[in-house]
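Running this now, will post back.
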Amino acid sequence: MKKIIILQLLIISCSVYSEIKFERTIINDTISELEPYYDFQFSLKNISPNPVKITDIRTSCGCMVVSQKEKLLQPDANDVIKGRLYPGKQIGRLEKSIWVHTDNIGQREIELGLSISILPVADISPKLLLWRIGDTYAKSIRICVNKNFHIKNIIYNDNILSLVTHSKSEDSYILNISPKTKVSARESIIVEVTDNIITKSYNIYILINK
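Update: finished.
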């Protein structure tokens, strides 16, 4: 009985002195909305004199995959956890978590994180313009495009709207828009931006009402 207890204590002692250390636990980065995926990796090291086994790696959503969910780290061994994030059509900051599970009772779960800022190719403000019927004064819309992009085309109903474009710089535009009609209308302006390879379309919504 004493031998069993001593053996168990030795096993627990070895586990307690096992430790994985990550170079960083959070990745902060910025990508364009045109990127179909984002590859990432976390570097790690077993800084203990005992082997540590990663038994499982879980992610906070199905939009992330990791290349390997189990691995054995020998003492003083370096390794990486590689993965890929699929942001879809999301814009803005994307926060995701990864949980690494080990056989070390002193470090059962390690949480890692992704904090990715997804920038639109074009930032349009505002995206909705309102007028009362009979109003004819102009309102402005500001469009800022990413580097290497420019406005390719602006599609609108010139029977309903008057539009003048002013370029403030290489990546900034002002649209001055005013209504021509004296009846209610719901319209949209389509702004196409391009880098001469990829073209992306954005909608600006127009409402003329009482």
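The two ends are 89 Å apart (CA to CA). More later if anyone needs it.
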